[in-house]
Amino acid sequence: MTPRGVASLLLVGALASCAEAPPPAPAPPTTVLLPAPVAPALDALGTAPPAPAPPAYSPPVPEVFTTKTGLTVWLIERHALPYVAMTLSLPTGSASDPKGKGGLAFATADMLDEGAGSRGAIDLSRAIDALGASLVTGATSDASTVSLSVLKKNLAPAFALFADVVARPRFDAAEWKRVHELEMNDLIERAADPEEVERVVTRAVLFGPEHPYGHPVDGTVTSSKAIGLDDVARFYRGAFRPDRAVLAVVGDTTKAELATLLEASLGTWKAPGTPPSPPVAPLAPKGPWPKVVLVDRPDAPQAVIALARPGLAGVDPDAPLLGRANLALGGLFTSRLNQDLREEHGYTYGASSRVSTTRGVGSFVASASVFTEKAGDAIRALVSDVADYSKGGMTDDEADKTRRQWRADLVETFEAYDHAAEHLAFDAALGLPADHERTAALAAEGATRDALSKLAARYFDPSGAALVVVGPRAKLEEPLRAIGYDAIEARDPEGKVLVRKAP
Questions:
Q1: What is the C-alpha separation between 337 and 234, in angstroms, rounded?
Q2: Is-cis flag, bond preceding 288, omega within 30?
Q3: Are the C-beta atoms of 362 and 311 separated by less than 8 Å?
Q4: Cβ atoms within 10 Å, residue 499
Q5: What are residue 364's phi and psi, to 5 degrees?
Q6: Whole-angstrom distance, CA of residue 179 vs CA of residue 325
Q7: Distance (Å, rounded) from C-alpha 182 to C-alpha 186?
Q8: Whole-angstrom Cα distance, residue 388 to residue 269?
Q9: DSSP 8-state symbol, 36
């Protein structure tokens, strides 16, 4: 084919192709840009939207039942984890110690797990460890306690050991000698801990030597020397009886299962025929109190300062509210005392305040460990902060912060099985009802700023309060006198008044 023929064919093919091609796609629509909305002015980080207020927390109310032996059980069933925690409490603590034998309740609790049932101290400890369990005994001013926590699969054998400790302690003479010597060493060493000395001396100053709360729970060196094994056994027989006990249980168990365990391991724990003694409810201490008490610690680089006055009883309906009011003053890192003494002035690594929870009238204490050379300024600031709070009350921000923190602390307590059981057991020892935590939570949640401020004015007023100082007297006398503390009373680390010899 000639070149002209080839060209003709190519032209025909091209025209055919053009005839079969689809029409071109329509052009896309024109994009219309709308004006951007005008945003509110923000700072460099922006403004977070307000968080909605969390709902009020209502703690669970335990189911209550009583065994044939008179033991009362408070049970909260939780089956999310295969774990059970329990605390048995009796309403007898160091407030019931005989005169001259302070620390007897503590020593008795300390001996309970030093051999029980058929096992000596070492065998008992090994048996508990083999089950992965934790068993702890203890005493407070108003209660004696035994606590157990264990995985559900080991509950039955662990409860049998727990029952031996509660109902069948051995009180071996050899173990008592060892335990008593350790207790004595701890009491001697306590005198070297300034914060522990402050707690011991503050208690002695506020309540006095004859008051049931006047001595430390673990006693003193002098009182501990007067305690013998016969005293321990006698105290146990009077305090540990099922008709005075409450067993608080939280975890993966049921009433039926507990009833079986209780019958098998504690069914023979019987109350004596004599009626139980009523729990001790100490009366409020009577002043006047010394204006300042000084415990000399020569050459100590720091001094512990504490402003102390009587508070209220833990069974008082206002107790939860007072606890919430204390959060703003000294119960949080961001509280007034810590922000002033630590953050603003650098007098201390931490300042705080506390209110006791006891069957009788307790205490309020604001304290800090401060640099010795700054002790005078720190005392002035501490007293001023407490006075300002008691007179002016809390702010709206503090009212909101304490409500949230109180709620968070309560949730944290009841989400942990061990803490929940301990909390309920102490409520029972104080004589509070099983629904106390729910009632107290609602009261604390609903308390207004004005109501909390009135409590602060009544219980935190530093007028007439005692100042306790633990530190080097040679360096502290002049600063104390410079701020108006002239009559300085000297005491030893166990709170006994010292008479200064004439030079």
A1: 45
A2: yes
A3: yes
A4: 6
A5: -120, 130
A6: 41
A7: 6
A8: 54
A9: P
Q: How far is CA 229 from the centre of its chain?
A: 32
Question: Identity (one letter) of the amino acid at 265?
Answer: S
- Assess contact for 311 and 364: CB atoms under 8 A: yes
- What tokens were used for 177? 């000698």
Determine how β-strand 466-471 pairs with β-strand 292-296.
Answer: parallel
What does the pLDDT profile of the chain (503 residues) look like in tens digits?
444 443 443 333 433 333 344 445 444 444 444 455 555 555 566 777 777 777 788 999 999 999 999 999 999 999 999 999 999 999 999 999 999 999 999 999 999 999 999 999 999 999 999 999 999 999 999 999 999 999 999 999 999 999 999 999 999 999 999 999 999 999 999 999 999 999 999 999 999 999 999 999 999 999 999 999 999 999 999 999 999 999 999 999 999 999 999 999 999 999 998 998 899 999 898 888 999 999 999 988 899 999 999 999 999 999 999 999 999 999 999 999 999 999 999 999 999 999 999 999 999 999 999 999 999 999 999 999 999 999 999 999 999 999 999 999 999 999 999 999 999 999 999 999 999 999 999 999 999 999 999 999 999 999 989 999 999 999 999 999 999 998 999 999 999 999 765 44
Instruction: Provide the 8-state DSSP code for 112.
Output: T
Domains annotated for the chain, with CATH where assigned, are 63-266 (3.30.830.10), 292-490 (3.30.830.10)
Q: What is the DSSP letter of 119?
A: B
Amino acid at 91: P
Structure tokens at 14: 């091209």
Query: In degrees rounded to 5, what are phi and psi of residue 247?
Result: -105, 110
Cα(188)–Cα(220) distance, integer angstroms: 9
Pairing of strands 134-139, 83-90: unpaired
487: left (phi over 0), alpha (psi -120 to 50) or beta: beta
* Both structure tokens of 386: 């407490």
How far is 367 from 381, CA to CA, in rounded Å?
11
